[in-house]
């Protein structure tokens, strides 16, 4: 079973994504900010991380920088899922090493397809 870590501070998005990915046979882990995500990543090695940019404590950009420093997480695919839709934000996310940058609002169906494509 593939593992996915969803990192977002918006409960409605987290609930919708958790439900959808569980239905698609993923083991789902949830973090509500970057620090919580980093704590989970100390014990879990997901295949995919869906990461919001704007969060309390540690934002998504800083979280990704920490993820990229960890050898154990080298195989993880990272998708930014953010309302920050300016070109410079998207470029920053991709330059930090994200595999994809998806702008909110988004299609859950399309996001699931993008995740499936990344991990095949």
TrEMBL record:
SMART domains: REC
Keywords: DNA-binding, Phosphoprotein, Transcription, Transcription regulation, Two-component regulatory system
Gene Ontology molecular function, alphabetical: DNA binding
Cited PROSITE patterns: RESPONSE_REGULATORY
Residues bearing the modification 4-aspartylphosphate: 52
Record-given protein name: Response regulator
InterPro entries: Bact_response_regulator (IPR050595), CheY-like_superfamily (IPR011006), Sig_transdc_resp-reg_receiver (IPR001789)
Location of the Response regulatory domain: 3-119
Keyword rRNA processing belongs to the record: no
GO biological process, one term: phosphorelay signal transduction system
